Amino acid sequence: MRSPQSALLWLCWQRARSPLALVLSAVFGMTTLLLVYLDVAETEYSKANVVAFVTMVGIWMLGPLCASRLGKSKAQGVGFPLLIEFSYPVSTIKLTTIPFFFLVTLLYSSFAFSSWLLCSLFSLPALDPMIHFIVLEYLIIVTSVSWATNNGYESACFWIALMLLFFPGWLIPDFSFNGHTGEFIAGSWSSALAPAFLAASAFVLLLYGVRKQRSGEGLLFSSGASQFRYPGLVLAEVFRGKGPSCPVSSAKDALAWEQNQFRGARIGVGMGATIGVVVILILSLLSSREGWIGPMELDDVMSFAVILFCSIFVGHLASSFGVSYVNGAARIGTFHRTLPVGTATLAAIRLKSAMQCVLIAGITELVTIGLLGFLVLDNFAAVFAEFVSYVNSILDQGLLYGALRLVLLACLIYISIVLWAVFISWFAIKSRQMAIVFSGLAIYVLLVISGLVVFTEGSGFLDATRMVGDIHAGILSLLIIVTAGYLFSILIREEVLSRENALLLLAAGIALAFLQFADLNFFGALDAEASVLNAVYSHTLGLLPLTVTVLALWTQHRIRHG
Amino acid sequence: MNQTTNNIVVETMGLGRKFGKTQALIDINLKLERGVVYGLVGANGAGKTTLIKHLLGLLRCQQGSVRVFGEDPVLKPQSVLSHIGYLSEERDIPDWMSIGEFCDYVHAFHPAWDENYARELLESFNLTRDKRVGDLSRGMRAQLALIGAVAHKPDLLVLDEPSSGLDAIVRKDILNAVVRTIAEEGRTVLFSSHLLEEVERLSEHVIMIQEGSIVVDEPMEFLGQTHHVSEFRFSDVQSALPRLDAVLKTSGEGRSWNVIHSNSPEQLHESLRDLQGELISTRNASLEEIFIARVGRIQQQEGISL
Q1: Is B92 on the interface with A (CB under 8 A)?
Q2: Cross-chain CB nearest to B104 (options A246, A340, A495)
Q3: What pTM does this model have?
Q4: Which of A46, A179, A527, B305 has the greatest count of CB atoms below 10 A from its CB?
């Protein structure tokens, strides 16, 4: 490293490589599996657009992750991330442009390379250049706006301004997207002039903003007057309000009180209603744009509802096991770990609270959408009728079946919450190892699929894919059972679970597994043409609530005791 | 609580820990007795915090065993931690809580919480219950964390760098509160600090740890009596003094030399008779002098230049 430029580039690379590897792995793995699934399912979706969509989503996930990781000294906030480097003898222009161009080039190259590789592998036509333009423009604008100010209010204003520019069509060039066929139709390149100008303006704003931050100033307000925080956490704080005081009667009550401050019923209602309002707002604006093809359907509404819900709650649930980010680095504080309370109690109260908040928020979001949809959206009556008909189709099979579906849905939500919280906790603590594991899995998926493409030479690909899928279903079944058994034994041996609690947990797990068994065998959910291994896998999924519960307890135990 | 009858509060046997290729703790055998104030000293990265984390069950043993009040802190966290007050170097307290909420929260986990004592400490530290933890200064956070650690009158108080980063006034407040806790009969305190004068003032027993191993585990009084700084004058100019087992550090040039040693001045005088050295003066070594001499000697043996 003979120059400040090379030293800065080296620093950026060191900090960005772990999240980069992780997200690229996810993108490769997801796209490949999705393409194979679409082929097997013989749907009419355009495969090239699947590649474009998944890689774009991946890169959009990657952007904020890398942007925040570039600054180890920076808390999970906005503003230029390389704060320590402000004291280095290097000009602000260099200090700003080197990490900026490094990040944008790295992310754009990742997108271009991964989409090219996947298109080549599956003999798909190259992506429309307009998609490349949109990705590049997105990266420039998002990075510039994220880094231009460290003041929370100013940052919020920028994001609102971007949304306002998006809806009239000034932020992104004209294009149409057919939600039913997955077809992407690019508009004329003249519509890209305004977005290109905006991207250039955002970059100029970034240079000015970093200069101000370096001298401890904000753009308009004082520097860092209000740090940006994850929207989910801000919403939680808004709705926390002045609640009851902490009970001193028992440790369990105190823990439940603490959890309720972030994941209580009141917060669930507030967050669910807010998300519902935002969904309706987005849908009403989108439905007035030309880019939306065809009448709005239940799937469209539910997609937006679920995506927005998940994007708010992923952050909200991230610290479920007590891992937090402080000054840009994962930290497991000692305070909660040294409280005189059993690990199982700690985990159970945390998970119960998370589950309760998610369920209440989800129901509130649906109710809000249902109420506001009639007032704001033109054809919401048709959407609602579709929903009612879906519910009726379930109820037609009897109340028992309706109750069963409801319990299975709750199980699915529970499994998702636990797996996400477990994943994010381990990723925070062991980011390098997790990145290696996921990269390895992605390479494995790619190699297996590529091998199938090469060896079957086109003919018999579907049969071979089904066979490989069946084998992996068998392996997954084994993994679910072995993981549950192994972790159970650890939890009993290390006295996290008493024998009584272990028996109770086992009984509850078997009861839920029986519900899955009943759904498959008594209500005809099992595919009659499924192979033996696939059928075994479908049945084993019933054990997932038990497996993820012991996984959660084990994770909490490991986080607490190292 | 399976309390041992021989008054041992903490016992480690052959405790070892590795982080990757770094051996953080090597064969630690330690016994902490009830009612004694222990000072834990060592250079940065010597293994003090790693040892404390094992005692609290925040790290599981890779080798050997740890027993606190006769129990494994990893297997019985609830039982062990209910008897411990811990002040971490990080002052890790939830920012969103108010001071009052924090006190109530910790109270809920410790039925023995002394509300009057907590209130008294809050007043003496000028902390008001409605103030948010996130708005507190570093010193105030440390004071509040200390209240959380001592107000339930723990049987074992573990203080990891209690004075780190604090000004002299807050440091004094904290030490006074610690002294009050110590004054209560039967309480054991394990006190880790870089400020050796503090350790010397408060501790009855010193554990010095260096590169993961215990190099000193002695009562403070004994340490003071056995370690001396002696000044010698020689008839001839000396380029260096001979290496003797009891000599920890030598400094000086020509005819005049100072020696820190762990035997009696007379014994050392005898050892240096051949060089015709005359003992000019001798005094008990301070903990800081012992520490620097011990750590320096280990580093010299390993060829690290000081």
Answers
A1: yes
A2: A246
A3: 0.79
A4: A46
